[in-house]
């Protein structure tokens, strides 16, 4: 059970991570000027994206540069590490990063086209995924998880005419199959 002091601090840390902590500051404007300027404001029209629609996920106006920077940082970190190029994690993350970078470069002025091509949410979510993947990559590199993955032993019987349930089949295998069928 958490103490009463730790829980509010944890909640503040979570909220501050997700919400912008600096509210916009209006200088030199009266309230009436702001009210009249907002009357003609239509969200999303001639102003770019104004909201992600998710609480705590702010719009990233410079999404293109931030996205390229985050995904390239993942690629660079893997390249600089001693993780072998044959590690499946490295292969998968490299393919993902290269795909997202290619989509961003193909549509530098159209975040919706990137979102549609990647099919993983909004560009802000992709940026957040890259940040989270960097944390996972750090853990993967620290523990050297690629060394823990072994090659599975695959038993393959290429002769389809051998039926374990048939008269010439293995009785032990047939019994295991029967028990497995009965368990379901």
TrEMBL record:
Official protein name in the record: Uncharacterized protein
Native organism: Fistulifera solaris (Oleaginous diatom)
Topology class, membrane: Peripheral membrane protein
A GO cellular component annotation in the UniProt record: mitochondrial inner membrane
Coarse class of the protein's main subcellular location: mitochondrion
GO BP field: respiratory electron transport chain
Basic and acidic residues composition-biased segments: 173-184
Family to which the UniProt record says this protein belongs: Belongs to the complex I NDUFA5 subunit family.
InterPro entries the record matches: NDUFA5
Domain of life: Eukaryota
Region feature (Disordered): 156-184
Compartments reported by the entry: Mitochondrion inner membrane
Keyword line: Electron transport, Membrane, Mitochondrion, Mitochondrion inner membrane, Respiratory chain, Transport
């Amino acid at each position: 059970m958490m103490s009463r002091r730790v829980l509010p601090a944890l909640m503040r840390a979570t909220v501050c991570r997700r919400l912008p902590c600096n509210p916009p500051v209006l200088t030199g404007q009266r309230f009436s000027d702001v009210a009249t300027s907002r009357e003609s404001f239509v969200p999303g029209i001639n102003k770019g994206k104004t909201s992600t629609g998710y609480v705590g996920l702010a719009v990233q106006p410079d999404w293109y540069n931030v996205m390229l920077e985050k995904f390239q940082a993942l690629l660079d970190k893997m390249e600089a590490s001693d993780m072998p190029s044959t590690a499946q994690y490295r292969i998968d993350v490299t393919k993902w990063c290269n795909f997202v970078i290619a989509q961003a470069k193909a549509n530098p002025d159209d975040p919706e086209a990137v979102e549609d091509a990647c099919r993983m949410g909004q560009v802000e979510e992709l940026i957040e995924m890259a940040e989270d993947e960097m944390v996972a990559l750090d853990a993967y590199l620290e523990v050297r998880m690629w060394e823990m993955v072994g090659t599975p032993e695959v038993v393959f019987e290429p002769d389809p005419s051998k039926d374990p349930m048939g008269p010439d089949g293995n009785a032990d295998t047939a019994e295991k199959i029967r028990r497995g069928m009965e368990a379901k």
